[in-house]
Amino acid sequence: MSIRTCYMCELEATSDEHAPPRCLFPEQKDVPDGIDYRINLITVPSCEKHNSLKSHDDEYLLHVLSGSFTSSHVGLTQFITKVHRAFEKAPSKASSFIQRYEPILLKRHTDDEWEQGAQVKVEAERLDLVLGNCARALYFHETAQKLVGPVQVITAFTMYLDAEVQANITSSVDTTKAYFASHPPKGENPDVFWYKFDEGVNTVTFFMCFYSSSEVLVMLNKREQP
Ligand SMILES: [Zn+2]
Description:
Bound molecules: zinc ion
Order of helices and strands: EEHHHHEEHEHEEE
Helix content: 25-40%
Distance between the termini: 27 Å
């Protein structure tokens, strides 16, 4: 009898890992109009190490994405329900998030009015870890193949401090978006998450979108596998 192995390693799978993390999808009790955003979520087989050990990083991704100024009303609903509950239950999570928070003024592009907002210095390594693993899981879901080598993550919903790096990021994202324009988005809860992907000889590229406008590019290297 063959055993089911983890999407990231050769250990036996003991659970199912959600891609992206399930905590991003609102529970029905938190949605005023009762929409079910947890229809047909994507899961892949996972060992203990590659699933439960990263749950804090999954939650961190939720905190950053749902509270982002690019977040849609669905993301903001998650922020004022699930994230607030988590912060109330474990205030240390809130304080470590808020310590990296500074008030700023933001200009709304709808009517050019200024409103108060905040900028948060994100923990890029944690975001890259979760988003990279999400792309690996989606690749396994699509092809039943494992890609566990190097990964490059570009988060278009964050601002990079170096203006030149920021300009390069914006240009890569625009080029990739144009390339993917005719690819239909995948994912059954597109108000929370959708993705597009393309496989070349050496690289697999994922274009992912969270809460309608927080965009992420992930490149997986097919050649450099351990
Ligand atoms: Zn594993």
